[in-house]
Write a structure and sequence with these properties.
alpha/beta; Metallo-beta-lactamase, Chain A; Arc Repressor Mutant, subunit A; 2 domains; 7-stranded mixed sheet; 5-stranded mixed sheet; 15 strands; 34% helix; 21% strand; globular
């Protein structure tokens, strides 16, 4: 049901649980759904939206007859700025007793707003064959993203199987790495409700971001493999209904999972076809052919997403013996086996 005041961006999805839709620039993944759990002894906010959406969040909470200072706990599904961006502002209004809980194994990722050093990111882009001029443009992204979120400290580290009181609901933490290394879902077994963050989305396949680590020449963790293992973990729960961080409510998880798997298969086939000439290519060049509608000179964020997507596919293709790679002249070159 929607609120009586007609606010179509805030609705009660279950007793004491309110879905609040907040603006996010760009068409995809679309506006952010955050969830406010209002109980007798506990008020918990699941994700926060960006800092720029703080005013909209504050108004929505006020429409419920509450103030941000009434929030006892913030739970973050992962360390992307559209999910933690307003946490620091809420903390300033709530006071020092506010608990910020997340699965960040390295809490510095939210304290600084970046998961790895800028050098690690720059070195990775160079290895992928991204031209120097484009890498310089992409450095601006860190400035852009800094405007979308204020950094803050995580006070409680969540782990697999932890039970988190959220309003009147005791929700279980389900670690679902893939989209990020620290992604989690929250599952309420008695009702079959799963709050999926960005791990399960109804309208697009979540990007399995490359998992960069300071000190590694190339990322070793396989984001795509972890993502689909996490999909199998959600499948084992048999959720009745899924409330994602973007898009509509999901009532048929299997249909969404099949969409992901088919999309992955098709993308694998396209990458192999691009490499059929048996000539070595850079990851950046493959990405340009795989996503021809991207303007490779104007969309630095989309370029990173495309390069990340191709690299994480290549990791598994190499594991299967379908491609081989070598580093030559500071660039990773790929060809079909």
């Amino acid at each position: 049901m929607f609120l009586k005041n007609g606010n179509r961006y805030c609705r009660e999805i279950a007793h004491g649980i309110f879905s609040i839709t907040l603006p996010l620039p760009g068409d995809k993944p679309g506006p952010v759904n955050v969830y406010l759990f209002v109980g007798k002894n506990n008020v918990t906010l699941l994700d926060t939206g960006t800092a720029r959406a703080f005013g909209a969040l504050k108004r929505a909470v006020a429409d419920l007859g509450l103030a941000l200072a009434d929030i006892d706990r913030i739970v973050l599904t992962h360390s992307h700025v559209d999910h933690y961006g307003s946490a620091a502002k809420i903390a300033r209004e709530s006071g020092e007793l506010l608990d910020i809980a997340a699965n960040f194994r390295n809490p510095v990722s939210i304290a600084t707003g970046i998961g790895v050093s800028r050098k690690t990111m720059a070195d990775f882009l160079a290895l992928m064959g991204v031209p120097p001029a484009m890498r310089n443009i992409m450095r601006v992204l860190s400035v852009v993203f800094s405007a979308l979120g204020d950094t803050c400290e995580v006070t409680t580290i969540l782990r697999e199987g932890d039970i988190v009181p959220m309003g009147d609901y005791d929700c279980m933490v389900v670690e679902t790495p893939g989209h990020t290394r620290d992604s989690i879902c929250l599952y309420h077994e008695p009702t079959g409700m799963l709050f999926s963050g960005d791990h399960v989305l109804p309208h697009i396949t979540p990007n399995a971001f490359v998992m960069l680590e300071d000190g590694e020449v190339l990322p070793m963790r396989m984001s795509q493999k972890e993502f689909y293992s996490s999909i199998d973990k959600v499948r084992s729960l048999s959720p009745r209904i899924i409330y994602p961080a973007h898009g509509r409510v999901i009532e048929d998880f299997e249909a969404v999972a099949r969409m992901y798997e088919e999309s992955y298969r098709q993308r694998d086939e396209l990458i192999i076809s691009i490499l059929e000439n048996n000539k070595s290519q850079t990851v950046y060049a493959i990405a340009g052919r795989l996503f021809p509608k991207l303007n490779m000179a104007r969309l630095p964020l989309e370029i990173f997403l495309a390069v990340s997507e191709v690299y994480t596919h290549l990791q598994l293709l190499k594991e299967r013996g379908a491609v081989e790679t070598e580093i030559s002249g500071g660039t990773l070159l790929v060809k079909a086996c």
